[in-house]
Amino acid sequence: MLILGLQKTTLLDYPGKIASTIFTGGCNFRCPYCHNRDLVIPPKDVIAYSEEEIFSHLSSKKKVLDGVCITGGEPTLHKDLPDFIKQIKDLGLMVKLDTNGTNPEMLKALIDANLLDYVAMDIKHSKDKYNTIASMNNLDISVIDNSVQILTSSNIDYEFRTTIMKECHSSEDMEDIGKWLKGAKAYYLQSYRESEQVINPIFSPHDRSTLESFVELLKPYIPNTNLRGID
Fold this sequence. Notes:
Helix content: 25-40%
Shape: globular
Order of helices and strands: EEHHEHEHEHHEHEHE
């Protein structure tokens, strides 16, 4: 595992839980709005955490923590992720995985092995426009759709989420996404925010009223649709 970040305590990353967040390095997407540039494209002089450091922290705090959020980058790029998660579960901690959905085989294997308690999957756009954001060579939308189907047909707790930008997402796009994810347990819209770590800072947020109109448009398809992180 290439681990490039550790937030020792968070009340935000794992809904309803006290958690530590582990940030893995590397991603197969190049979403220009991503605010984790140094995780997606790690600098040559990056200093990684050892697994010993991670598990020393988790072991010392396991009576305080409810769980661990594993995010990135894209965690499922790492073949040793299942073994890493098993070690976390052996400490009696719950595990939430953040993923872009490009590795449905690993996602299913992790769910089938009871290694995950919660999954948050990013939905970049409607199917037809997905690669306008993902910027991935030879994107096969079927793998994203497979991950959607795996989650919606499972008993695991999960959510879908989309970062919304004025230049990219319209009401028509929201309707297309709603039809695609119809019946999902939960869907969150997150407004774009600029930071120093954004890969390509060329975007801007919709105003709150527009975001709220998107939520109302989506509710007939996904009743549990909400805004997240909106001031």
